[in-house]
Protein 1
Amino acid sequence: MTELEKIKYKPVSVREVLTEMKNLSELMIDLAYSSALFNNVELAREVMELEKHMDTLSYLLNINAMIAARDAEDAERLVGISKVANATDKISDAAADIANLVLLGIGIHPLVSKAFQKMEERLVKVMVSPDSEIKNKRIEELDLAARIGVDIIAIRRGNKWIIDPKEEEMICEDDVIFARGASKGVKKFKRMAERRSRKV
Amino acid sequence: MTELEKIKYKPVSVREVLTEMKNLSELMIDLAYSSALFNNVELAREVMELEKHMDTLSYLLNINAMIAARDAEDAERLVGISKVANATDKISDAAADIANLVLLGIGIHPLVSKAFQKMEERLVKVMVSPDSEIKNKRIEELDLAARIGVDIIAIRRGNKWIIDPKEEEMICEDDVIFARGASKGVKKFKRMAERRSRKV
């Protein structure tokens, strides 16, 4: 069991919380596999933190769904939402389980990383070189998702972690970037981060 | 609880089973969200079938992992594998939960589909038109993953479902294709399936 964040009840949009939970659960799976693949204990810790946040979201959603239910019809609809929310919560638990293996130091067995081979083509960890073409650019400028189908899921900048960075985040020299995407895209992204290319 | 497939013990490669479980769990999540998004009961049923298969894989993996453990060191390694396998199993449970909502007829609430909006950009359902450029082509010929970052996750051909089709599968007229990928890629794929384009 993870500890819950300290929370107070607040009225929230059930839909927005559900969207956040769904997106967060997917992000957590990719981060958890990344932590296992690159044997990164810090990233595993970030996953455990997100898991706490997920529990908070789940709590907020369930409370607000109950308050929103005024009659049987409402309640029927809201049960569906709460079920989907629980499913995303279960996915995030699975992510935390994988991250926990890394924290326990048992997630790096060659057999496991072999099984992750296909995953390896989808996930990449790369350091931004001094003459990289992506240095000092905002994520929105790079437009990676549309151009090469790659998403940046986390950045380590010195001791600081930026999980699921915003579009306006600037990429800096020496940033360690964790990204996901189709295999061709992530290979291309690795090249972009590591050296200047003449043609983009 | 889903019923287990009838299984006999057989020696299998723990690594191969783990790889299959990991890939299957991801496929199931996408299929489950697709079934909810397109309110497709048949697809939801396919997810429930895959869940049974997942339980079988989990059983085979655990038995084979136990047999493989001859000493403490072996056992320690194998615990890690079995934990990752359990995590993929949990993910597939969550997928089955979502599919089950569709089977119960409560997965289609507008609030939920709004929350899936971002997902909608990643998942697509499209029917292959008579003059489509992808008709009568094998999946490997189309090379969708490398060219536009799109994966075909299921095909409905008349009453038959082909889940996670192989590379040599031929695309036919009137096939209903479920695919996943980056938003730009899936839009492009939709155009390719629906009409002939002059330029690929």
Protein 2
Amino acid sequence: MIGGGPDSFIGAVHRNAAWLDGKFDLVAGAFSSSAEKSQQAGAQLGLDPNRVYDSYDELFEKEQKLPKNQRVEAVAIVTPNHVHADPAMKALENGMHVIIDKPLSFDLDEAKQLKKKVDETGLIFALTHSYTGYPMIKEARHQIAGGKFGGLRKIFVEYPQGWLSHSLEKEGNKQASWRTDPSRSGAGGAVGDIGTHAANLAEYVSGLKIERVCADLNTVVEGRNLDDDASALLRFEKGASGVLIATQVAAGEENDLKLRVFGEMGGLEWSHKDPNTLLIKMLDEPVHIYRTGTDYVADITKKNTRLPAGHPEGYLEAFANIYLAFGDAVQDYNRGALKEIKSYDFPTVEDGVRGMAFIKTMVESSNSNTKWTKFLL
Amino acid sequence: MIGGGPDSFIGAVHRNAAWLDGKFDLVAGAFSSSAEKSQQAGAQLGLDPNRVYDSYDELFEKEQKLPKNQRVEAVAIVTPNHVHADPAMKALENGMHVIIDKPLSFDLDEAKQLKKKVDETGLIFALTHSYTGYPMIKEARHQIAGGKFGGLRKIFVEYPQGWLSHSLEKEGNKQASWRTDPSRSGAGGAVGDIGTHAANLAEYVSGLKIERVCADLNTVVEGRNLDDDASALLRFEKGASGVLIATQVAAGEENDLKLRVFGEMGGLEWSHKDPNTLLIKMLDEPVHIYRTGTDYVADITKKNTRLPAGHPEGYLEAFANIYLAFGDAVQDYNRGALKEIKSYDFPTVEDGVRGMAFIKTMVESSNSNTKWTKFLL
Amino acid sequence: MIGGGPDSFIGAVHRNAAWLDGKFDLVAGAFSSSAEKSQQAGAQLGLDPNRVYDSYDELFEKEQKLPKNQRVEAVAIVTPNHVHADPAMKALENGMHVIIDKPLSFDLDEAKQLKKKVDETGLIFALTHSYTGYPMIKEARHQIAGGKFGGLRKIFVEYPQGWLSHSLEKEGNKQASWRTDPSRSGAGGAVGDIGTHAANLAEYVSGLKIERVCADLNTVVEGRNLDDDASALLRFEKGASGVLIATQVAAGEENDLKLRVFGEMGGLEWSHKDPNTLLIKMLDEPVHIYRTGTDYVADITKKNTRLPAGHPEGYLEAFANIYLAFGDAVQDYNRGALKEIKSYDFPTVEDGVRGMAFIKTMVESSNSNTKWTKFLL
Amino acid sequence: MIGGGPDSFIGAVHRNAAWLDGKFDLVAGAFSSSAEKSQQAGAQLGLDPNRVYDSYDELFEKEQKLPKNQRVEAVAIVTPNHVHADPAMKALENGMHVIIDKPLSFDLDEAKQLKKKVDETGLIFALTHSYTGYPMIKEARHQIAGGKFGGLRKIFVEYPQGWLSHSLEKEGNKQASWRTDPSRSGAGGAVGDIGTHAANLAEYVSGLKIERVCADLNTVVEGRNLDDDASALLRFEKGASGVLIATQVAAGEENDLKLRVFGEMGGLEWSHKDPNTLLIKMLDEPVHIYRTGTDYVADITKKNTRLPAGHPEGYLEAFANIYLAFGDAVQDYNRGALKEIKSYDFPTVEDGVRGMAFIKTMVESSNSNTKWTKFLL
């Protein structure tokens, strides 16, 4: 693991997700840009001190010298955005598979270079768009792909948070600090941190790509250096349109990602507040409440579920589903039986490139007086 | 009553609302542009046949000849939009108070003329933006006005319906027929029918006026002659921004108006699905579920509530609240004690003018390649 | 109207319910045991002072002298329980139809005498078990009667309130005062006031009669003279069993009547908090959310609905549905075309007798050390 | 691990829960009474074949011969109820700590013997009453213990499931097979399987012991050999009373454990459907929605939460909290610093004894004609 030291939120999430199913062992790490903090984290995690490194450069160097069967096989990168591309490139160059937090990189250029390197090396590269790991998101995607709703017309996705309603970044909050700092976060604030999740989810579930956006990015909290609020009108392929909201100043909201998709014959609704439920709304029928753990859901949904109906699964399980899919691909790679990468159903470097393009497009649109801006891939 | 014949939806609503509190009697009507249907409706309603008229012109003419204490005192106009302004003008000219369905008129010009006439005559003129009659909408407005949330930042209002997902207007549905016909409905389809409700509610509750919009109106169902889907980015006074969604092609949705407002210190959420509830979300506090019929709500909320907590009130009660407020004004007018019209807290001709301007602005914005369009009052 | 003066809750409800559909006029009343308060109420209601009476005896005497076509046709009795039977008997003796609040009477004997009188006179007699007027209660009953769930197995009904968590009766609260006073309320406190609603609803929807109960009645608040809390195990006809909860000391609860019925193949759930929704739960299927105002519900459901889907109706509308059904029967009676009384689908004197028997059975069971007590009809 | 082979539901749950936080390694197992199935499970789990045993007797024998620092330290017992006591006794005799699924044993006698052995050995013994691991259950218990609601009055706990609505046990379902078989499950069916969870949760949260019950156990599905449905009136210490429902024939229900507790000044509600939420209902206040991951909850709640607000945690996380607490105790034991066992806040052998006594009491009460049966400890 690279990153994920004492103040990290997402590092612990990656570890829990990797451990949950007993398929991954954490054997080495460079947990912080501070050597001391890295050692401290490694000790807390009970790692062999010889494999707790002062920097990721040291990690790559020393692991490379280990015999192949002892060496780190895959690297989880959970650093702030500006420290994504470099360790990811080096991991690939050292023959390690990579699972990395979103957004993929600091900017679109880095993202494209990473994609090139992934293509060259043929290694497994996963991006943790965690929400796509939820079983009912799989069900939603499955039902839409099966044509249940006819041609899609409207896609509404929203991701309201309230935690940045104040200048937390000036009150010593590490998470707020780097996420609102353009030198570490990149060109997007809210639009990068949560807007990319929302856009990715909308595209993943609908199967439609965003083609044009009309964005309104705001820096609501005075003195902040990045947008903390984003709204956009969207145009998708095949005539669908929609709205995206991603805001971190909806004071009192938690983390309430919500997706609604409507087609000619009905629609669906999924909310992160109640992630084991998918509402299916067909014209002139009662709304149907689909639930995880039931017999009537799709195979792909079942595959991403651990428990019978009525036993809630949550964020860590969704996250772990991405780890499981990544792990399957790594195993297949190792035994020389890698299938088409899309078939493993985890977010890839391509999703990462689209995410970085989305940030760029949204920022450009927001700065423009013209209504529509083409997706800048 | 003018309009409200056999195929009318809103005519029956107005009658129930007027009757509910025992304060209004229905004594006369011109219920349809068809004399026969008007008589039929009058008979069903048990009216004196002498006061069931073939046309509203006849109504005004004949009622005017009755002694003042027998004559119709106030007229409810519940016709399609293109038959709003004419009977409303004539009612005012005949000294009758008017309560009229929204949107106010066919276009902004008519609306302005009506406003002029109302100002001239000093008669009472109410517009049934029904949702503003809900007790928890009063509570929301009250709490915001009291400064509970600090300066407002974000306003999200949405009004998804699914009933126009097909070409109902070609299947003999009267409601769909006039509402999708520009010669009867005016320049706006969804934006006029439900978008005006959404905009009015957002302004009423927040106390902030919309200053600019960036709209995307769509005619989703092929062959339809008016928009059936509208989305817009909004800029309000005092730096607040927001999003408005009003769509009639969200297949499977009912009539799910929802408003969320966020300020510096918290926010609120109201949904038409559960109208007796108002969620109050303060930063770092549990969400508080405010409910109608309780002791802790504001006086204005109590005034608009009939039942103790736990006894649901609905759409007709909200509608009736507008009738009650209108009735109070009429009574005060009659005894020469009319107070400032705003103090009665019902939607007025001014709201109607803003509604028509909103439609015009949205249509113009949607046709423009420029991002922002100023509110065209 | 008899009762329904200044401090009455249910009097206003009856009036709103009667007025809502424009089918009833309030023309006379004896609104209080205090002549002064009766006059005051009549004046507020705008009645002809000649028909506001000092007592219900006076009402019957004077109305009887009016010409038949001017005379009160039906009487609404909304007094405390101990003043139910006497005015009801006198109304029937004077040839007036009766609509009366529940529970029917002070005790079972009175109830049986009333039933005898109703049978003798053939007049229309309705009991306002208001919750049975909800459209989704009609739908629930319809679906069960149609055999959708197979043989019924479990019936859970609960009615938690919190308003009597303190000794409100000692703080000048009129409602609390008579409802906790055995000399005015009868043998049952919570069990009479809300337990009868719960039992009636369970029987009405399931179509099954309670045969045995095992009750635990408690007087939770010190110094109170009647039960304020009741729970019971139930045995129904045809092998079904269940649980009933009716408590007025569930501090923080409003008025949350809830019914769940389960059969061999599925079950249903209805909650007063969201009365326009009925959850249908079939084995191995998604839960189906049935909603009022839709096309797919039963005719009887549609008949009890005024508005299209997504327009909430509430308690007054449900109450008004009982008035409408009662009015239909009165009209048919008047034109000599009365059908079988059950066909009008309003609660009758028989329901009232069962309600009084229920109270008696519950009290006796609670006082007994034997587990099961037969229903004492 | 003992048990948890191919057809086990709870075995996988224990493994996920143990793994989630990276604190436990699975090193050995006797996964089935069939040696072949045990080996198969061990292979699937990637265990060293030398430590996959044909029986738990072999496990104890062979592990005992390993050097202490390699030997199994704690045993998870996840077999059907009739194979609980024997391996648990042997584990304790072999100096191993035990974590065991509920109910504790086949009958009360076994339970008492186990308790005796635990007391003698001083080893750590945890019982996985999983629902007590939820953070909002901790919060509920904390708020009640702090006196927020005053003296407790009413406790309603219900646990409706629908999965045994048919004779699944005759259709080859392994779970249904042993759970409805008195020779494997013990004297209780639904009352043992889920009733014990409900009773334990009610006692844990309220801090009050059940003193008397009046139970109605039913075998609803024809031909079944154990109760599949249980209801009971409850009397708790200190004057509180309540109702318990535990049924497996509520067709269409999932696993909807729900607890409501009411005191003099308010109450709380927790539902397994939405486990990260706790409703706090104080008299004359808005209902407060407490949520996991927030700053305002108690320290014990925070300790049992992994993620910030808005990131749902579920059943596995709650289960893992019990493993974490058990692991803390084991660690303290190992370093000779064991604190008072209650302080670790996991369900102990005492809870297990109470659970078995609860089953016995419920069965006896159901067979009795006397209303109340004392808790048979």
